[in-house]
Specification:
- The protein is mainly α.
- About 80% of the residues lie in helices and about 0% in strands.
- It has 5 helices and no strands.
- Helix 2 (about 30-45) runs antiparallel to helix 3 (about 55-75).
- The longest helix has 26 residues, at about 105-130.
- The protein starts with a helix and ends with a helix.
Length: about 140
């Protein structure tokens, strides 16, 4: 009886290990969007600043680069149609502009580009949220 339980438990363990190794690094669209949402919220928390220091600009830059990278993954992995690619390009553009503005320590430009990034994200979610069951 113990041998059967051991074999059963070992089989389940191997199955779970095999599934996790196959899906390792294979984020779903919802997971990527949730990750971008977290970076978006990090930037959102700072956009109301009247003045920013170097650490704030560093956080803006890091969040923008993370959003760009995740959007590139999303675009290459889940390219569903032309519309989706255009919306992803818009997100990438505004994220890159935020990164440039952070490098130039231009808080006003960061705030402008953040509003445009918000609109780009919102436009994508209007179309694909129900279809892809996106988190935010």
């Amino acid at each position: 009886m113990r041998l059967k339980k051991g074999i059963f438990a070992g089989t389940i363990t191997l199955f779970v290990a095999a599934m996790s190794s196959v899906s390792y690094g294979q984020a779903s669209q919802a997971e990527l969007c949730k990750k971008m949402w977290d970076d978006f919220q990090a930037m959102r928390a700072m956009t109301g600043l009247s003045a920013a220091d170097d650490s704030n600009f560093g956080k803006f830059s890091a969040a923008a680069k993370a959003i760009t990278a995740d959007t590139e993954i999303s675009k290459s992995k889940f390219a569903t149609d032309k519309n989706y690619n255009v919306l992803n390009d818009e997100v990438i553009y505004h994220s890159n502009e935020i990164d440039k503005a952070a490098a130039n320590k231009d808080l006003e430009e960061i705030q402008v580009q953040f509003r445009r990034l918000t609109i780009a994200c919102r436009n994508c979610h209007k179309i694909y949220r129900s279809e892809l069951k996106l988190v935010p």
